[in-house]
Design brief:
Layout lengths: L1 H10 L4 H10 L5 E7 L6 E7 L3 E8 L6 H11 L10 E7 L3 H9 L2 E12 L13 E3 L6 H19 L5 H4 L1 H13 L3 E6 L2 E9 L2 E7 L8 H16 L6 E5 L3 H9 L2 E12 L3
Parallel strand pairs: 3-4, 9-10
Antiparallel strand pairs: 1-2, 2-3, 4-11, 5-10, 5-11, 6-7, 7-8, 8-9
């Protein structure tokens, strides 16, 4: 039991959902591999869990992956699960503050999808209201083109910085529209308009702010703070959710500082990968 708690404590450094997912798989056939590497200063844990149509690995060290024999042991556990043919998707989630472990996983053939942080709003009450002076709406299919333009413009800078596809939303409107409709049906879409132009929007998925986007032409005017305050109020007061979380890319230092100023604190650091075989 003590070893289990140590393993889950290490896996939880990646993000809270990882701890819950691995914990639920404990003592079930879904937990394919579970290794604990004891050390007074640098203990580590590695788990492989089979999900519905995917295989997820979790690797975390208190400091970093430093011992060659430990790396060899982890590699030996991973190799039998290398995807072949119709194998399920293989994801590998590494503690984001373990750069050596991240490089090791990439050398084994995994591609980095996102390196970032999980944040949580640290106060028990929403921030004070800010005047927005915009027309507020939910989602309508007729507005899809406005959303694709806003999201493409809002994410262009960070996408270029990370080598992610630029203009994905306008290139994949059907997929994006499907996502917006699904979240709309859950009450998770809020948009803000001025004179028929969509200038900002946020998307809520469970206890997460999955997206908060302000058009670049309307940034640095306090609108982002007002939209964030509106979103937190909706989640905590109107939806009565227990907490508010979000993810932010490590490279997006401006967004990270913005959320920290608004009382968000780190609850996880992650480097999410998928198998690429190269």
């Amino acid at each position: 039991m003590i070893e289990k708690e140590k393993i889950l404590g290490l896996i939880g450094k990646i993000y809270p959902e990882a701890r819950v997912f691995v914990g639920a798989a404990y003592n079930t056939p879904a937990l394919k591999v579970c290794r604990y590497f004891p050390s007074k200063k640098n203990e580590g844990a590695f788990c492989l869990v089979e999900g519905s149509g995917f295989l997820a690995g979790y690797l975390a060290f208190r400091q970093d992956l430093r011992v060659p024999s430990v790396a060899a042991a982890i590699q030996a556990e991973i190799i039998p699960y290398y995807p072949t043919g119709d194998s399920p998707e293989f994801c590998m989630n590494v503690y984001g503050r373990n750069p050596r472990a991240i490089r090791f996983i990439q050398e084994l053939g995994f591609h980095l999808d996102m390196h970032g942080f999980k944040l949580k709003y640290s106060r028990h009450h929403p921030p004070g209201s800010h005047p927005i002076n915009l027309n507020e709406k939910s989602y309508h299919d007729a507005d899809l083109a406005h959303y694709t333009r806003l999201f493409d413009r809002g994410y262009e800078e960070i996408s270029r910085a990370n080598g992610w596809p630029v203009g994905w939303y306008s290139r994949c409107p059907d997929a994006f529209g499907h996502r917006l409709r699904r979240l709309h049906n859950q009450g998770g879409v809020r948009s803000f308009w001025r004179d028929g132009t969509l200038v900002a929007a946020y998307l809520i998925q469970g206890i997460y702010i999955s997206d908060l986007v302000v058009d670049p032409d309307h940034q640095n005017r306090g609108l982002g703070s007002a939209i964030l305050a509106r979103c937190i109020h909706e989640m905590l007061v109107e939806k009565k959710l227990p907490e508010v979380r979000l993810s932010v890319a490590q490279s997006n230092s401006r967004a990270l500082r913005f959320y920290q100023r608004h009382h968000f604190v780190e609850i996880g650091s992650f480097a999410d990968h998928t198998w690429s075989g190269s």
